[in-house]
Design the sequence.
């Protein structure tokens, strides 16, 4: 942290009201987090299981998809041909986006094409939290608890990028590798007012950002008991009132909060958020953060990761993802009769013991409090990883031909069609 930043935090902290010290605190660093996707298979990613009896979404015949959208077979086969100079080996074939009505871009106008379908979870078991307090709805947890609300899993749990055993899905591996290599750090502070940390009716749990990178041991695992300073952040913070019963921390009141998400869309914005975390005998912390999140942000995150690449590599049509998320959305912030703009979700969290310091690094935290009032303005981009992505497409300004609804597609007469 720069000296000027330390001075800013020190002055702001001095001006802020004092927060009473807790009777006890436990502090952690998140070493793994991923969407809570229950895996019902015996082995493999695409194979059938109790979660997905028919397996994951099958690989897509893109020639057929483009012909169904009005392209000729020759045009469709040429678009998929690796010899086509408009098909980038890194960023895909942009013309695939223009398959809606009147060749609209289906990434930004997903309803311009009929719902192509998306295989969803049909099993009855899921991980997560009972968000609405109704055990007659939702899934049953692996431990037999009723009422688990996780329609995000119901919608996307058979998409191969999300499916796999714990800590082994391709999406979880990709984004957690990034986090563990220093892209971001999330800290957890648990503070109570009672005498027994394992049983306390008055507990507060804070999730915070940090600029300090995690440290790996000789086996490439995240090392315990390293020191991290809280970085006040205008967005990434969530504070939960809770209780502890036999080491299990559960929310006593739903809250709103934003966490850094392991995904292309980096903001995990949660309404009516709750936690269920267990303090393990080895000192670690495991469990879930759940709530209702804006489903359209999820869709846009995948689009802005370069739609043609995501579709080709992960075997989905993104309009199908849009329709499925909209269909399974189960919460409206404006009330029961409002438009359901949010979908129930759970984040699986694994955290290790760590020393957590105040923003000025002068002392260990002794309570859970909000630091948003002293956070610098947030100017970071959250929509995507590629600055040249426009409407889901990576735009190369030097390309001789750009994709679009009026693009001329002329297959060479003497070039054999590549088999896909």
Sequence:
């Amino acid at each position: 942290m720069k000296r000027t930043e330390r001075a800013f935090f020190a002055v702001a902290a001095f001006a802020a009201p004092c927060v009473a010290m807790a009777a006890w605190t436990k502090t952690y660093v998140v070493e793994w987090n991923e969407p809570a996707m229950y895996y019902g298979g015996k082995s493999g990613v695409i194979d059938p299981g109790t979660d997905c009896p028919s397996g994951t979404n099958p690989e897509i015949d893109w020639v057929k998809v483009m012909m169904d959208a009005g392209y000729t077979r020759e045009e469709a086969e040429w678009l998929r041909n690796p010899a086509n100079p408009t098909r980038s080996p890194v960023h895909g074939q942009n013309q695939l986006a223009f398959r809606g009505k009147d060749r609209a871009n289906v990434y930004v106008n997903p309803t311009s094409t009929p719902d192509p379908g998306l295989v969803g979870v049909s099993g009855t078991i899921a991980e997560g939290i009972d968000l609405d307090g109704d055990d007659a709805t939702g899934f049953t947890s692996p431990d037999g608890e009723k009422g688990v609300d996780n329609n995000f899993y119901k919608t996307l749990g058979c998409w191969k990028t999300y499916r796999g055993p714990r800590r082994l899905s391709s999406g979880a591996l990709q984004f957690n590798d990034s986090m563990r290599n220093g892209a971001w750090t999330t800290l957890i502070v648990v503070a109570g007012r009672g005498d027994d940390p394992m049983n306390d009716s008055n507990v507060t749990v804070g999730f915070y950002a940090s600029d300090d990178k995690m440290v790996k041991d000789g086996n490439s695992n995240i090392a315990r008991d390293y020191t991290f300073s809280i970085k006040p952040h205008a967005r990434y913070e969530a504070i939960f009132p809770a209780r502890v019963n036999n080491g299990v921390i559960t929310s006593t009141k739903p809250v709103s909060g934003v966490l850094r998400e392991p995904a292309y869309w980096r903001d995990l914005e949660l309404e009516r958020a709750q936690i269920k975390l267990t303090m393990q005998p080895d000192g670690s912390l495991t469990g879930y953060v759940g709530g209702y999140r804006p489903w359209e942000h999820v869709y846009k995150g995948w689009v802005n990761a370069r739609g043609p690449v995501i579709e080709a590599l992960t075997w989905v049509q993104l309009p199908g993802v849009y329709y499925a998320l909209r269909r399974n959305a189960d919460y409206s912030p404006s009330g029961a009769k409002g438009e359901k703009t949010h979908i129930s979700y759970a984040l699986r969290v694994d955290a290790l013991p760590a020393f957590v310091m105040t923003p000025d690094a002068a002392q260990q935290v002794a309570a859970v409090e909000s630091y948003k009032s002293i956070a610098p303005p947030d100017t970071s981009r959250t929509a995507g990883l590629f600055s040249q992505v426009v409407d889901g497409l990576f735009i190369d300004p030097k390309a001789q031909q750009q994709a679009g609804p009026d693009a001329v597609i002329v297959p060479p007469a003497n070039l054999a069609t590549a088999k896909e």
In short: The longest helix spans residues 3-15. Residues 1-17 have pLDDT under 50 and may be disordered.
